[in-house]
Design brief:
20 strands; 5-stranded antiparallel sheet; 6-stranded antiparallel beta barrel; alpha+beta; about 45% helix; disordered N terminus
């Protein structure tokens, strides 16, 4: 990025200069970056679909598969293979979403276990269900393979034509990436191994006693929640622990194994349930953390071993401490390409002298504004990168990823850090006009999408029913502090439901009409200083006095993006910014009274009160 066009004022304050840049390092141009950003996984490979397919088929298989009762001929015992099947099925739900590398190994193993345990001698229903489980596992494996292939395509495209390869500048801080994850994983795996050893010792002791035991036939005379009472042929009465006492009919007979003071039912050997639960509780997260830590450490080490691709980019730190990377010629950081958490090595130890107090604070303040940086490493989803920039005095600083690289999706972008507030308030560069903004002079309006309305309707119905139930309790049982607070909490649901169902923003010649859950507020155009969409689905408007007016509860951005929907409030924030900066695009007509929006809060509250009164005094 050599210079800023004369028609565009320079960012304020000026970003820190780059350290000396080798002549062969190119700018990551917007056109090339756009082609890179378009290389993504296929829509069918979205982890959500694989997880849903596995959940539905596994639940179906469990529902239709019979649970064989324990008997003397076929005792229950410790089912280590079944425990492996359960553990892998639970783990796959997380690995399909976050660890495609582990999915490629675990899915075939789980498929083999399911085929070995469930398919032989299965009836038509269980056979169909388990075949669908195998199909879901195959689909998940293919989706994981597609995700990894998309990463390779991104890496290859980023490296294609990039002749500049350089090693990270030295000195470098010790490599700690992945140490905490791998260490925690090792500890949990050790705990899981201890639980497995305890279970195996218990099974071995049980078999040793059973081999020496005397078999006695007894009659069931009673049972409790966790035991059965029997009477032997010689008149002795015994109480024996049982995992499934309901399987033993009173008056029926069973076999008791006795080895001195040790005794148990012949149909219920030691099943190691608690050690197996401990094995799953520690082993699944332990294996996930260990693999994630080792992968992160391997990628970070590869970044430091030798020359890697280098590109000039624009970076910006948001208010949550997350770095957003933009194309090198995107001087105003409009279109983020990828994001990741970064941790900076303490500057100093080089020719510019040792680190000074306040260096990290200065770096955070400077990084809050769009600034040039050298990006080391080929960018791809889940990868590792390093950024090199410098202080105003030329001292170099290296920032390394503290988490995997993530691609930026539609409607996402950096939320400006507090340090960048003054610059954002200046509004130096007019907003672009989105293609969705079509102006005809008539008023424009924005409202909730289908997902927002569906959730709002469900919330309104549950809120009205909840208010009626709690009100009836207060009338019949008398006033209570807890029901009263529950009533207040449930009433607050109605406010959220009204907003989700019928929030509306209308733009006319005078400004914006903001319809919330209780009232309609007008915001004149001259008071609209800046508009910002936040990641929690809200829109913030900067007021002339420096304060913020927030329109919350507009939707569920993460869920809507995963479902492939285009949230209306994302488009709304972009169009508001364009109307703010381009007065000629604003509507020229005024909106009528009802056209400004109709808050549903009073109506829902009235319905809830009427329903509560009718039910309480019926």
């Amino acid at each position: 990025m050599s210079e800023t066009p004369a028609s565009i004022p320079a960012p304020l304050p000026a970003p820190p200069p780059l350290p000396p840049v080798p002549a062969d390092v190119p700018v990551w141009a917007s056109g090339r970056a756009a082609r890179w950003s378009a290389v993504r996984r296929a829509p069918w490979a979205r982890p959500l679909w694989s997880v849903l397919a596995l959940v539905v088929t596994v639940v179906w298989a469990i529902a239709v598969s019979p649970d064989p009762p324990c008997s003397d001929a076929v005792p229950c015992g410790a089912d280590w293979l079944g425990m492996t099947e359960t553990g892998l099925a639970v783990g796959m739900l997380a690995w399909l979403a976050w660890l495609p590398e582990l999915t490629l190994v675990a899915a075939p193993v789980l498929a083999a276990v399911v085929a070995w345990l469930e398919l032989p001698d299965a009836g038509p229903g269980p056979l169909a269900a388990n075949l669908c489980v195998l199909a879901a596992l195959g689909f998940g494996w293919a989706a994981a393979m597609e995700r990894l292939a998309a990463r390779r395509r991104q890496r290859d495209l980023a490296e294609d034509g990039t002749t500049a390869r350089h090693a990270l500048p030295v000195p470098l801080a010790p490599l700690r990436r992945g140490l905490i994850l791998a260490g925690a994983g090792l500890v949990l795996v050790a705990v899981a191994a201890f639980c497995a050893a305890e279970g195996l010792v218990g099974v071995h002791d049980d078999l040793r006693h059973a081999d020496r035991a005397v078999r006695t036939t007894a009659k069931v005379v009673g049972r409790d929640d966790d035991s059965v009472r029997v009477r032997t042929a010689d008149g002795r009465r015994l109480t024996l622990d049982s995992y499934l006492p309901e399987d033993h009919r009173v008056g029926g007979s069973l076999t008791v194994l006795e080895d001195g003071p040790w005794r148990r039912l012949a149909s219920e050997p030691y099943d190691a349930m608690f050690p197996q639960l401990g094995l799953l509780a520690a082993g699944l997260p332990g294996l996930s953390l260990l693999v994630a830590g080792l992968l992160a450490r391997r990628r970070a080490a590869a970044l430091r071993r030798g020359p890697v691709p280098v590109l000039r980019v624009v970076a910006r730190l948001d208010r949550e401490g997350v770095m957003w990377i933009h194309a090198g010629d995107d001087a105003w950081a409009r279109r983020p390409l990828l994001t990741a958490g970064f941790v900076a090595d303490a500057p100093g130890g080089d020719a510019h002298g040792p680190a000074r107090p306040g260096d990290r604070e200065e770096l955070v303040r400077a990084a809050a504004f769009p600034h040039e940086a050298l990006m080391f490493g080929a960018p791809y989803e889940g990868g590792e990168l390093a950024l090199v920039t410098s202080f105003s005095d030329g001292r170099r600083v290296v920032a390394r990823t503290s988490g995997p690289v993530r691609l930026s999706g539609p409607g996402t972008g950096p939320e400006p850090a507090p340090e960048a507030g003054e610059r954002d308030a200046a509004g130096a560069l007019p907003a672009e006009v989105p293609k969705t903004l079509v102006t005809t002079g008539r008023p424009l309006s924005w409202g909730p999408g289908p997902l927002s309305r569906s959730v709002g309707a469900a919330l309104a119905l549950s809120g009205i029913v909840g208010v009626a139930l709690i009100a009836r309790t207060l009338v019949t049982d008398g006033f209570g502090v807890r029901p009263f607070f529950f009533l207040l909490f449930t009433v607050s649901w109605l406010a959220t439901a009204a907003e989700l169902l019928n929030w509306r923003v209308t733009a006319d010649s005078s400004g914006l009409w903001l319809s919330g859950w209780w009232k309609v507020r007008q915001l004149p155009w001259e008071h609209l200083r800046s508009v910002r969409y936040t990641r929690d689905g809200s829109v913030e408007i900067r007021m002339p006095d420096g304060g913020d007016w927030r329109l919350p509860g507009l939707g569920m951005p993460k869920s809507e993006r995963r479902l492939g929907l285009n949230p209306s409030y994302v488009r709304m924030a972009e169009e508001w910014a364009a109307l703010r900066d381009h007065p000629d695009l604003r509507p020229t007509e005024a909106v009528s009274g009802l056209g400004r929006g109709l808050p549903l809060g009073p109506a829902l509250l009235a319905v809830a009160v009427i329903t509560a009164l009718a039910w309480s005094f019926h």
